[in-house]
Amino acid sequence: MTAARSALSLKIVSECSVTKARCCKMTLPHHTVDTPVFMPVGTQGTLKGITPEQLEELDCQIMLGNTYHLGHRPGPKLINEIGGLHNFMQWKRCLLTDSGGFQMVSLVKLSEMTEEGVKFVSPHDNSVMMLTPEKSIEIQNDIGADIIMQLDDVVSSTTTGSRVVEAMHRSVRWLDRCIKAHKRPDKQNLFGIVQGGLDAELRTECAKEMVKRDVPGFAIGGLSGGEEKYHLWRMVTLSTDILPKHKPRYLMGVGFAVDLVVCVALGCDMFDCVYPTRTARFGRALVRSGQLQLKNQRYVADMRPIDADCKCLTCRNYTRAFLHSIVTHESVSCSLVSLHNIAFQMKLMSDIRQSIREDRFPQFIRDFFLEMYPTKKYPEWAVDALDSVGVHLNDEFIQ
Ligand SMILES: [Zn+2]
Q1: Distance 347 CA to ligand 1 centre (A)
Q2: What is the Å distance from ligand 1's center to 344 Cα?
Q3: Are 15 and 39 in contact (CB under 8 A)?
Q4: Contact yes or no for 252/219 (Cβ under 8 A)
Q5: 395 is in an annotated binding site
Q6: If you measure from the C-alpha of residue 318 to the centroid of ligand 1, how many angstroms do you get, rounded to a whole number?
Q7: With the C-alpha atoms ordered 137, 143, 145, 149, is the resulting torsion angle positive or negative?
Q8: Helix (H, G, I), strand (E, B), or coil: what is residue 152?
Q9: Segment 120-166, tens digit of pLDDT
Q10: How far apart, in Å, are the Cα atoms of 42 and each of 39, 103, 139?
Q11: For residue 399, what pLDDT band results from cuts at 50, 70 and 90?
Q12: What is the DSSP letter of 340?
């Protein structure tokens, strides 16, 4: 295979001496990203209720845009004409776009996977359309994000049998078509997506095939669809063992704090999830001990901020009592809680990075779990996953 041109460089800054965690500087065309990183998801090119300026203040270095939504409105050609999505939304830092495939399958009622691509009935005008690997890349080339994703054959993580085999092989074939169709490899980085369901052999085969393709980075896909966490961590650690160390590893659709801490320990560098902003819309604020349901009566006269240690605009200015009075019925509350929740994710990742740099990540993990589960009723999958990389939650005396 010939080496693909790349607009990405990954420098490993520190490696944890116990787990598979590492801290890197990932240099992309628009910015340098410190990893491990959480990427907030902006569907229409913007996060609901948060401006690009506010995201920059939170030191967000990379965000995600949904190709499916952007492809419809304002449309890739218009975005391209005004100089790409960066210009359109006034975001100076890095962007990643997905292929559009996942949204297609989850949002469009009538969609069908064929070798050619995803056939679907447009919800806008009821015409039959086809999203091929080539079309997905063409749209993403027009949008102009720093990182673009291959179109993959998405199956639910709980699907088993021949359909998973077919989807895995097809995803490899589609990666080849995406590489061929990619017109801007010197400015945009195409990532392959490791599929294979919850089958260790299939995932191994897929990861090995993808690695031969020499794209600038790899994602681990198909693992955020409600499968048991027992499977998630095994598929993740198997993938990070095969994927090359000098390229970024992006675990798609994962964003719960516990999952982030564990999967960093398993060697993942990048994460995205709609959870922090989605949960904010229901009035739930993220804190290290779990979450605050701000609707709850107990906050009616609580004059503390969500988190006294948080430096976000919401925590600097507003009390739980005030937020309680407006949550879920005033749109500004959605903005205020979303802002805090993104700040929470950013701070968590920054604390993780610092602990890796100072080679005390195992202790960080133990402290983090104790704060989240003060009675030490740790989820079994997390205990097993961390055991596998040398961090033993249930034995305080082993370092
Ligand atoms: Zn806050």
Answers
A1: 10
A2: 7
A3: no
A4: yes
A5: no
A6: 9
A7: negative
A8: coil
A9: 887 777 888 889 999 999 999 999 999 999 999 988 878 889 999 99
A10: 9, 13, 17
A11: very low
A12: H
Which of 94, 96, 90, 88 lies closest to 31 in space, CA to CA?
A: 94
Q: How far apart are CA 14 and CA 24, in angstroms?
A: 7
Average pLDDT along the chain:
91
Closest of 25, 79, 90, 19 to residue 51, by C-alpha? 90
42 annotated as belonging to a binding site for a ligand: no
Nearest to 250 by CA among 274, 228, 230, 223: 223
Measured CA to CA, the distance from residue 255 to residue 273 in angstroms comes to 5
Q: Which residues are catalytic?
A: 98, 272
Report how far ligand 1's centroid is from the alpha carbon of 315 (Å): 4
99 is annotated as contributing to ligand binding: yes
What DSSP state is assigned to residue 252? T
The residue type found at 323 is L
d(CA 173, CA 358): 42
Q: How many CB atoms lie within 10 A of CB 121?
A: 15
* pLDDT one-digit tens code per residue, 82-116: 888 888 888 899 999 999 877 776 666 667 889 99
Is 214 annotated as belonging to a binding site? no
| Ligand 1 center–CA 301 separation, angstroms | 18
222 is in an annotated binding site: yes
